[in-house]
Known about the structure:
By secondary structure, this protein is of the alpha/beta class. The chain has helices at residues 2-16, 59-65, 68-75, 106-121, 136-147, 176-179, 187-197, 222-234, 280-287, and strands at residues 19-22, 33-37, 46-50, 79-83, 124-134, 154-158, 207-213, 243-246, 253-258, 264-269. A hairpin with a 5-residue loop joins strand 9 and strand 10 (264-269). Helix 7 (187-197) crosses helix 8 (222-234). It is globular, with a radius of gyration of 18 Å. The model is unreliable at 1-14 (pLDDT under 50). One 2-acetamido-2-deoxy-beta-D-glucopyranose is lined by residues 30-31.
Amino acid sequence: MRRLTVLASLGALASAAELTQITDFGPNPTNASFYLYVPDSFKANSPLLVYPHWCHGTAQDAFGSKQWRSIADEFGFPVIYPSSPWTVDHCWDVSSYDTLHHNEGGDSLSIASMVRWTLENYPIDSDRVFVSGTSSGAMMTNVMIGAYPELFAAGSAYAGVPFGCYAGDGYAVWNADCAEGRTDKTGEQWDALVLEAFPAYTGPRPKMQVFHGSVDNVVNVTNYYNEIKLWTTVLKTGSTPSSVAENDPVSGWTKSVYGEQDLFESFLADGVDHNIPDQIGEVIRFFDLDCTGETCFSRKSLPS
Length: 304
Ligand SMILES: *[C@@H]1O[C@H](CO)[C@@H](O)[C@H](O)[C@H]1NC(C)=O
Ligand SMILES: *[C@@H]1O[C@H](CO)[C@@H](O)[C@H](O)[C@H]1NC(C)=O
């Protein structure tokens, strides 16, 4: 009976906090909307997660249908749920010159402003800011890690494309060449795009984790192999995995880890299409979100 009472009160606590819209959070050139979830269990010095939604999704959809709310409740960290301003299909702007360049504009600057506002207004560990998403959210994850390396410790992208692959004429344009796998570059060519996004930056590069289905018919798996070329070059891990594990974390998936410090991880899901299921435990582990104290993974752990 006593255990039941404790569980009931925890349940009440966990459901009290709500998704809150923040306005006036700094430069927001594309008028993206900023929704913030701060769980009642919020603890000072917690990490921060940014979770941009997929095309045709919203902040509310991502908040309501993904597991991050309950994970945030459990470990006490806030989650930023940005909402796309592009009403046609609610994808993210991963195409414009502005979004692909540090502090130039586009949706990436709007999301960077959300992160900066949250760090100014909550006692969060600024060395433990993470970004993850699926599909358009994964494309945006690649863009944020490439254009705002000073803000993030790591990114995790499900069914995305490499930074700069969607580059096109305008904001939030669909790039069929990229999506359908006709854009193929060397690691050095991808790396050059990332360096050019923020030429003055000399600090550590966030580590990165990517997941992709082998039969993805919306965002072709060519993009997975190009993300590998991109991030193994940026992170200087070398192109040969230090370990490869089959049926990890689930049957049919192959996990590859790169570099001495495991700075890059890739997961190929055999037979899986664009509707790739979350492996949230892998993301929590990679970001060290269940860690408290001094020894948690953070930007301070990254090679400089
Ligand atoms: C954003 O909103 C402002 C104020 O309503 C407007 O002037 C501006 O044109 C909008 N920007 C975009 C990209 O829609
Ligand atoms: C991905 O692109 C390759 C090369 O164009 C093509 O052979 C393959 O069928 C595509 N995959 C899917 C699932 O559409």
